[in-house]
Design goal:
113 residues; alpha+beta; Protein Transport Mog1p, Chain A; 5-stranded antiparallel beta sheet; 5 strands
Length: 113
Amino acid sequence: MQHNLVMTIDTNISKDAELKDYAKGQCEATARFLPGFEYIDEKEKSHPLGVQIYEITYKYKPTDELTLFQKQWYMFIDKKAYIFTATFNKKTLNTIAEEVTEIIGSLKVIKED
């Protein structure tokens, strides 16, 4: 299995958006397109930059023989939503997911002038 980490930046968020509501809404939209989607966990965390992170973990079955696990991390920085999505199998969800969380924790945003 090949692992990946994808970062998406959404510049079209409402100035009144709440992180948890935004994250859950985005994940619910994703769930409609993934076969066998099942939520596993949701939690709020703090990023070293001092911003809140909303983390969602779920699994889905693209085929009868394969179950994939994904974690998504959402954060708002400078009126933008940063969304990270990483894909794991059952073993790597328990082994390298924490390393991926540390990679996301090392994010430094350079402000545009």
